[in-house]
Amino acid sequence: MKTNLKRITSGLLALLAMFSLAACSGDGGTAKTTEAAGGETTAAVTESAEPKFIDSLGEYDFGGTDYNMLIREWKVKDLFVEEAIGEVYNDAVFARNASIEERFNINFTMQTLPEEGATWNKALGASVMANDGAYDVVMPDYWWGCETGGYFLNMLDYEDIMDFEKPWWTQGWNDNAEIYDQMYSAVGALCTDIYSNTLAMFFSKTIINALEMESPYDLVRNRKWTMEKMKEMSAQSSADLNGDGVLDLSTDQYGLYFDLQAGRALFPSFGWETSTKQADGSYAYEFFNEDFVKLCEDIYEIIWNMESVSYKGENAYNAFKNDRLLFLAQGIGVSSNLRDMESDFGIIPYPLRDENQEDYISYNFGTFYLAIPKSASNPEMSAVVLEALNAETYHTVKDAYYEINMKEKFSRDEDTREMLDMIIDNLRFDFTFVNEAATGSIVMYFFDQISNKNANVASTYEKRQKAFQKQLEKLFETYAETGE
User: Could you tell me the end-to-end alpha-carbon distance of the chain, in angstroms, rounded to an integer?
Assistant: First the structure.
């Protein structure tokens, strides 16, 4: 599917003022003029008294050329909209795209592919082989492994354009995507999944008040929100409401609910890191010890041995909305599903393993990334527009999505807004998670074993350990060979 996006109109320029930040910092002292795609680039330096742009790019003119983007079908609504409709997030996206089209004299075009990794790898391989210039930027899901297929340019070769130290780039992710001075994909503010897919715990204020429990907000602030406190409060709130002697999420009251992704977040939230960076820039598996075995046992107990915990049960949202579930562990984006909930709820981070843990840690269950194909018709244009898109998103669309949608519409008090900031600020990424497809999904392996009721995760891993190690070594060998 290919779609031409609407160009900016004079009426929409007024809309841009709603989201612009006139005082934002930027270089602004260099004005650049670039010919249409494929032409030579010339630069003319001009002096400006005040920064003109949020970013430091200056001015480019790409001569009205198309900027072709390959996007996942499910993500189109997060990146492009047909028109302004008076809704804050929608209109911020529209204004951003229109502004960048006008600024760089380009026309955004969009092509989509289904949510299938094999389809994406096949399409990218064919495009690169034919050198057809079909896509200027592509946005696959991270776990399809496209970044190791040899389809993309090294984004670090364009650091003079894309400043990965700027806040509109997700440094925690990108640092883990860089191997031996090669980075074939990057995540930035444009990738809004970073916000919606971050795991947190929703709690019922009705149950907290009815049982006169401690404030979850105060527990977090005082560093008393720990694994043991979560278990204690969960057990305290569980109740057989219909008296039939059997706990059922559809009729009774539970303390805590996890689905698969929410359960996977327990390992990293309790401070576990799969891999450790080495002096040469590679990574090694150094986690397997008695403490890790104990952690596996603790998580198994939470998921399977606590009556007050429901794992992958049905009707979790219904139970939460009807004040029969104390804690709902989910991505913070699901708060949109709770907007019609009559009772009040709050949001807090996952707990500390114990009070010795340095800080609360947030986990994200994935995002799409940004990459420039080797077959891009004008890689400089690809890089320039990516930098601008992420900068504008960070300063305008992110605020509309996170500050207004998530904080104003979906959260119900100042405490929750404080917690949301803490959750996002403490978001961390593991090397093997970012490179999941090339590392055999080891970062998921241990909880998935628990999910399947394997109580002997340690012994199972010992049988797979050599295979995981071989995959890791192969990943670094591939990058070493590519970099030669």
Answer: 38
pLDDT in tens, 111-146: 999 999 999 999 999 999 999 999 999 999 998 999
- Predicted confidence at residue 390, as pLDDT, reads 96
Distances (CA, A) of 200 to 334, 337, 352: 10, 15, 13
| Whole-number Å distance between alpha carbons of 5 and 2 | 10
Q: What CATH number is given to the structural domain containing 130? A: 3.40.190.10
**3-state secondary structure (DSSP) of residue 323:** coil
Nearest Cα to Cα of residue 166 among 353, 386, 446 = 386
What tokens does 350 get? 């996952």
Give pTM, 2 decimals. 0.85
Cβ atoms of residues 353 and 271 within 8 Å: yes
Q: Which residues neighbour 291 within 8 Å (Cβ) at sequence distance 6 or greater?
A: none
Is residue 283's pLDDT more than 60? yes
**Residue for token digits 């394997």?**
454
In order of 50, 151, 155, 362, the CA distances from 179 in angstroms are 38, 16, 12, 24
Q: Are 370 and 177 spatial neighbours (Cβ–Cβ below 8 Å)?
A: no
Q: 397 vs 25, 117, 192, 386, CA distance in Å?
A: 17, 28, 9, 15
- Residues 327 and 225 sit within 8 Å (Cβ to Cβ): no
At residue 241, the 3 state secondary structure works out as coil
Residues 388 and 67: beta-carbon distance below 8 Å: no
> Which domain covers residue 125, as residue numbers?
2-195+367-410
Q: For residue 44, count CB atoms less than 10 angstroms from its CB and return exposed for 0-12, middle for 13-18, buried for 19 or more.
A: exposed
Statement to judge: residues 324 and 390 lie in one domain: no
CA distance 318 to 341: 10
Residues 163-218 have pLDDT tens digits of 999 999 999 999 999 999 999 999 999 998 888 899 999 999 999 999 999 999 99
Structural domains of the chain, count: 2
Please give the Cα distance from 116 to 429 (Å, whole number): 24
441: amino acid identity, one letter:
S
Is 417 a domain residue?
no
Q: What is the pLDDT of residues 380-413, one digit of tens each?
A: 999 999 999 999 999 999 888 877 777 777 777 8
Contact 140, 368 (CB under 8 A): yes
Does 104 map to a domain? yes
Dihedral angle computed from the Cα positions of residues 436, 437, 442 and 445, in that order, rounded to the nearest 10 degrees: 100
**How many other CB atoms are found less than 10 A from the CB of residue 332?**
25
